[in-house]
Design goal:
Blueprint: E1 8-12, H1 15-26, E2 29-30, E3 43-47, E4 53-58, E5 79-82, E6 95-98
Parallel strand pairs: 1-4, 5-6
Antiparallel strand pairs: 2-3, 3-4
């Protein structure tokens, strides 16, 4: 092994808004102080309760995937375990899996 993952970064038009969305899904703390990076209007983070860290990077002229349209394929997705599939969020590029 020559490296370790710091965080998973998702490109987006508004990092703060996407961080809030994922906090509502996964829990955690937005923009926790961390010496590995600086947060600002163009970059937000979410430290989840499971230890996963997500970064949200504002991209000028961001073009969202139109999943599941193969002409505009998903650019990234997360597999998310949930206790109740009926209560899970829908319409976003991640897979919802029944927690075991």
């Amino acid at each position: 092994m020559i490296g370790t993952v710091q965080c998973v970064v998702l490109d987006c038009p508004d990092g703060a808004s996407l961080a809030r969305f994922y906090r509502s899904l996964l829990g955690g703390e937005i923009n926790r102080a961390d010496p590995r990076w600086a947060v600002d209007d163009d970059f937000s983070t979410l430290h989840t309760e499971s230890g996963l860290v997500l970064g949200f990077q504002r991209i000028k002229d961001f073009r969202a995937p139109q999943w599941p349209d193969n002409a505009h394929p998903q650019q990234f997705h997360l597999d998310v375990d949930v206790p109740d599939l009926d209560d899970a969020h829908v319409g976003h590029p991640f897979c919802i899996l029944q927690a075991r």
